[in-house]
Amino acid sequence: MLLERNHNYKANILVVDDTPDNLRLLSAMLTAQGYEVRKALNGKMALTACQMLLPDVILLDINMPGMDGYEVCKQLKSEDKTNEIPVIFISALDDVLDKVKAFDVGGVDYITKPFHGAEVVLRIENQINLRLLQNKLQEKNILLQNAFDELKAAQVQQIQNEKMFALGQLVAGVAHEINNPVSFIYGNLQYANEYILDLVKLVEIYQKEYPNPTPKLQATIQEIDLNFVVHDLQSLMGAMYRGTERIRAIVLALQNFSRLDEAIMKSVDIHEGIESTLVMLEHRFKETAHRPVIAVVKDFAALPSVMCYASELNQVFMHILNNAIDALEMGNGAWRLGTKNRLQEDAVISLSQENFDTTQTLASQQQILNSHGSPQILIQTQHTSKNTVKIIIADNGPGIDSSTCSRLFDPFFTTKPVGKGTGLGLSISYQIVVQKHHGNLTCYSLPGEGAKFVIEIPITYSTL
């Protein structure tokens, strides 16, 4: 109901009575008090009048032909548009049961005939004032809810900032401490390999020049197994090269993931961020006592560089992939049940509908269909016709019911046991994608059929 707050507003009163004399009397009485008065001779006319213009108060007679006041009030209270209109019953009956019934059907007050003008006006004013107070209370509740929502958003943002700062400090420290000794080792491996080759060459020349070693030398050669040492040295040096390369790649992935030197928006390669995140989570994909190894299926389309906050977008990938792994840890998804992963097939079908390269889509589909029977995460990227980029992260875990799915992005909401999750990861992800990048983050899931998260952000950032 809409009640104006300025003093010039005249409250609108609808008077419903099948007796014309009562209508004229009440109309004259209320008009003299400054009210706008409309009249209705029966229940149907009253309902029609309410649909045309909502009254502020209804004076409703009980005993009317066709449709009595009780039925009119029931119909008013059954509709969202009219259920908040205060209804004051008027009747010549002064029986307690009639009053009780009037309140049961939704009436707020009761006036008996013959009525007194002062009493009618006072009861109407009480209802109008009460409605005004209710409206003010409702407005304050809305303001309080908005303030509460803003406070929660600020808390989430503060936690995100603190997490990013802590992560940045950790990454900077780890990268610095590891990078220097690894660079020293990597840089000297080449020289060490050359020195070893020189020594091996010297031994070979010595064997040719002195083919008959002394008994003591012969015993030493057999003891150390010289031939094995010479042949194994190359394999050993290769393994050391690969090990140091791996450490350097991890350090680079840490730096790329955090991007501490890129707090501003930049044009970046989305695939690079995904790959860095996968390196960070590689230990979680390995086989455990509760599940086999998690297969990560990548289907990357050709993407242009995207204007974004790279470190924060990497955080989104991290949160969603972590949730997918946690879901697969539960061990009762489609892969455990031995059923077909329809969700992943649907994801592939959607690619073909976006007019992507048919050969690539069919190849991806075949790869996915051939990998049933194990926990897996599918990561797909798309360049859409809307000049946006889509990143799809799907798993064949246990899935999510609709009631839970609708609350996934609420701050502090979590389905994990106490101590296993804060309920902030997906909320932070939603803020980053929707508020900071003007994109969309949605979840599609059914129980037993896995979950699919779709991140969509514009390629060129707009401040609008």
From TrEMBL:
Modified residues annotated as 4-aspartylphosphate in this record: 61
Gene3D superfamilies linked: 1.10.287.130, 3.40.50.2300, Histidine kinase-like ATPase, C-terminal domain
Coiled coil stretches, renumbered: 130-157
Response regulatory domain segment(s): 12-128
InterPro entries registered for this protein in UniProt: CheY-like_superfamily, HATPase_C_sf, HATPase_dom, His_kinase_dom, HisK_dim/P_dom, HisK_dim/P_sf, Sig_transdc_His_kin-like_C, Sig_transdc_resp-reg_receiver
MF terms in GO: ATP binding; phosphorelay sensor kinase activity
Reactions listed under catalytic activity: ATP + protein L-histidine = ADP + protein N-phospho-L-histidine
Entry keywords, A to Z: ATP-binding, Coiled coil, Kinase, Nucleotide-binding, Phosphoprotein, Transferase, Two-component regulatory system
SMART domains xref list: HATPase_c, REC
Signal peptide from the UniProt entry: none
Protein name listed in UniProt: histidine kinase
Taxonomic lineage: Bacteria, Bacillati, Cyanobacteriota, Cyanophyceae, Nostocales
